[in-house]
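Batch 3, record 17
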Amino acid sequence: MVSASTGISQELLYQVGYEVNKRAAIVVPQDGLTAFGNAWERESKPLAHFILGKILENAKLAVADARPMCGDTGLPRYYVKVGNEARIDGGFVALERSLRRAVADVTQDIQLRANRVHPLTRKNPGNNLGVFAPNIDYSFEPDGDWIDIIAVHKGGLFGTDYRMLFPADGTDGIKRFLLDNMAEFARRGLSCPPVVVGVGLGGTKDQAVSLSKEAACLRLIGNRHPDPDVAVLEEELRELANKTGFGVMGVGGDTTALDVHIEIAYTHTGGMPIAISQFCTAYRRAVARIHADGEVEFREDPLWFTDYYRREGID
Amino acid sequence: MSQYQGREWHLDCPLTGEDIDQLNVGDLVYLSGPVFTARDGVYKHMLVEGHAPPIDLLALTNVTFQSAPAGVEVSPGKYHVSSLQATAGFRYAQYMPQLLEEFGVKVVVGKAGMSEEVYRDVFQKHGAVCLTTMGYGLGAIYGSAIKDVLGVYWVEELGISEALWILELERLGPLLVEGDVRGNSFFAGANEEINRNLGSLYEGLKPPVYGRLGEEHKPEIELF
Ligand code: SF4
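Prediction for the assembled complex:
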């Protein structure tokens, strides 16, 4: 419980941070399970079908045994959406301290791999914390008095790329970039397909990269962009990615991409920056909302891309 | 949907020459017994810098995993593994001659394997095979097949996620035979089939107006 004068407590933030990290590591979200199940049912290649069956079995065992679904437990990170009226006891610094502590404790308790190391010395503090780690990204929402805490444990050294395209390249350029990305990273399954592909199109260059990551990790499989032109392109790219035939693990199969999500941002009139990120088979995300009265609600849909966040229809 | 027809083997580590010879690409393997893990940290420490392993690896097993598991020290000196997955093996091809030569390794379990050339030039010569984990994210299935952690070494020097782990397996699998002793690669075959259709997907899509340095457009090739 929280009192109106102090706001959401540090302890509650820690508990929720702990719980979303634990769930992210172990539990495949329902949209992922459904998509893997559909892919398994549809698959026409015997080996790919066999592997998809094992992925479903693995998902069940992870929950039954409370084990991380993949031995590479990825890099734990947070996306935090804060209602404009929300109050946090101790402010944002307290929030960040709680979220850091949660990552360190889940690493020990759930036995995540301590993946975060110094990039040069390779020194490992052993708790998935470090310089700029874990990432915490924020967005805001008018009127709400709640805080959404989303944990994502994205794995994979492969699958992400950026390129500056130009207006003359048009959708041909986008499709080629997607095909190139698949050929580079789905081959031998280096990026661990079936993946959810996120495309960041436009914006500034760095925005394109971070939007591609968010598009891959923070929209439900099957969700379509509200802009009909973008939604059509999402469908086309999904079809194209699957036509490559890499399939699960790159062994040859019908499903390489469970979905393609595109996020667009207004960009420089002369360019069309594009980035792609692939969210691997270890589809790890968990979402919780902490209400002002201390009630905690877990849900599947990250609801990250709100109209306000996309700056749709605001002044 | 027909069942996958790959043959299935249940083998004990260390594997015998006969065990290894009978494996063909595309077969499924389940392993029991002791294995050691090695990835960047161990390869550099042991092979490049020449630190002798703290235990006699050759006497223990001839199977290595290109991995460090997800696991922690639960009490001083006592480790537990929750989940296991191998890392992409192509980047360790450079260490294979020395590893197979000096440490008698006959089975390398990694992710996605290496090129056919490495199998022909190095593995074949030593009568060794390359297996790949499957899924790839079957971490819980593999983790549950780890019966015991027999030891964890070089934690101080390399950190827990690069350390040398000695694991006792009980029917860990399925693993896929990616490179057999005859120098064949499963993925080379899979790639050939995929490549037959890949080029056609580019048809009618005009190339970008501005290239990238070093860009040669050959989506069919392996990049390692
Ligand atoms: S890319 Fe994903 S599924 Fe593959 S090993 Fe890494 S975390 Fe696991």
